[in-house]
Amino acid sequence: MSALRKKFGDDYQVVTTSSSGSGFNQPAPKRKRQRFVDKNGRCNVQHGNLGSETSRYLSDLFTTLVDLKWRWNLFIFVLTYTVAWLFMASMWWVIAYIRGDLYKAHDDKYTPCVANVYNFPSAFLFFIETEATIGYGFRYITDKCPEGIILFLFQSILGSIVDAFLIGCMFIKMSQPKKRAETLMFSEHAVISMRDGKLTLMFRVGNLRNSHMVSAQIRCKLLKSRQTPEGEFLPLDQLELDVGFSTGADQLFLVSPLTICHVIDTKSPFYELSQRSMQTEQFEIVVILEGIVETTGMTCQARTSYTEDEVLWGHRFFPVISLEEGFFKVDYSQFHATFEVPTPAYSVKEQEEMLLISSPVMAPSLSSSREKNNSVDCLDTLEDTSTKLPSKLQKMTGRGDLPRKLLRMSSTTSEKAYSFGDLSMKLQRISSVPGNSEEKLVLKTTKMSSDLMSQSVADLPPKLQRLAGGGRMEGHLPPKLRKMNSDRFT
């Protein structure tokens, strides 16, 4: 038996080949690949070979202590106080030892530095009583010991610094909003289906608490390996997935579960993704939800991710909101549930290509109807212009409907000029002769239509012939009619 090991990025697939039996290859189950971000939001990144850069952690000691695990925080908390207490108790014992108070503690005529301190345990108890401000009154400092007064001031300052540092660290550690993210839910799977006529990637978010997330905002990153045209390999290239940044849909009012949508279009990284190609693709969608906790005012961030095997093609989420008497009820038992819906198995790019292939069939009819509409619009415009002649001028001519007939005749002539089936026999014979291009045919047709126009104009009265000949009407009218005409047009 031989084993063939194939590597796909961070994934390994073992294929076993049997030398007996039917001899066909049975692929072993594919090992679950390494995620960049776990479902609970933890990033699987470890920093190694830092060398001398580890000293940077000490420069920001407070943040380092806050980022430590709880067991290490408690250990440092207890260790710091124990060392500080033992050190200060030793200092009081040394003063008593140098002054000889340990040997004269029971002499009533001798005034020691600290009363009733005659060994190390008593010195330790005196320090604890002073530091904790208990003050039992049995052990106290006297005015005959200036070095003891200086040590007492140093003890007070050091104790305040240690308390502020350690208690502040523990308070920040306890008030961190990381646990708030435990009550923010993400759906186990993401789905791809049609919404509003567009192929859309969707997933669901929810808030289990009644307290709101103020200024909640969601972002999505696509992590995918790729190679640049220059040959550079990018193992974890981050691409932005638009979830409504341009429209403001990324700003959430997270009171009830919401479905976050990413429309797959030409700008989307999933523009070429289809149901078939998704079986061979390797990617990870990282979802980041940020907001301000209403009760504490601190910023909270919740994260999760979806790999390619957690994206369901042709599915949709079950509705979870129902209307009851006086309130809306959210059923979280259906929060992760999906059902299949009819969805094209092709990518958006393939759908657009198929649409372009089928569109030329409709192009001739669309162009002919567009030309017809243009000619009708032009005819209507000319007819409106002709109706603007003064009524007196129309009565003078006695042929008020002649311009309309003339325009219709010219329009009919020009329409016939672009139809070879309606041309005269002479022009049809010209078009059938080799060497005559379509441009010559159009020129001759246009000339023929202009001859018909001039022939029709010749039948008009002299005054109308001058108007149809291109001259301005105002130049040939009497002053009174010219004034009437200008008032009518203005």
Radius of gyration: 46 Å
Order of helices and strands: EEEHHHHHEEEEEEEEEEEEEEHHHHHHHH
What is the β-strand count? 17
Range of strand content: 15-25%
Structural class: alpha+beta
Defining key terms:
21% strand; 17 strands; 5-stranded mixed sheet; disordered N terminus; 5-stranded antiparallel sheet; elongated; 490 residues; alpha+beta; 13 helices; 38% helix; single chain
Write the layout of secondary structure elements.
Layout: E1 2-8, E2 11-17, E3 26-27, H1 55-59, H2 61-67, H3 70-99, H4 120-131, H5 146-174, E4 184-186, E5 190-195, E6 198-207, E7 213-227, E8 233-241, E9 251-252, E10 258-263, E11 284-293, E12 299-307, E13 311-313, E14 315-317, E15 321-323, E16 328-330, E17 338-340, H6 348-358, H7 363-386, H8 391-397, H9 402-417, H10 425-432, H11 438-458, H12 462-468, H13 479-489
Helix pairs in contact: 2-5, 3-4, 3-5, 7-9, 9-11
Care to describe what's here?
With 490 residues, the protein is α+β, with helices and mostly antiparallel strands. The protein has 13 helices and 17 strands. Strands 4, 5, 6, 10 and 13 form a 5-stranded mixed sheet that branches. Strands 7, 8, 9, 11 and 12 form a 5-stranded antiparallel sheet that branches. Helix 3 runs antiparallel to helix 5 and helix 7 packs antiparallel against helix 9. The protein is elongated, with a radius of gyration of 46 Å.
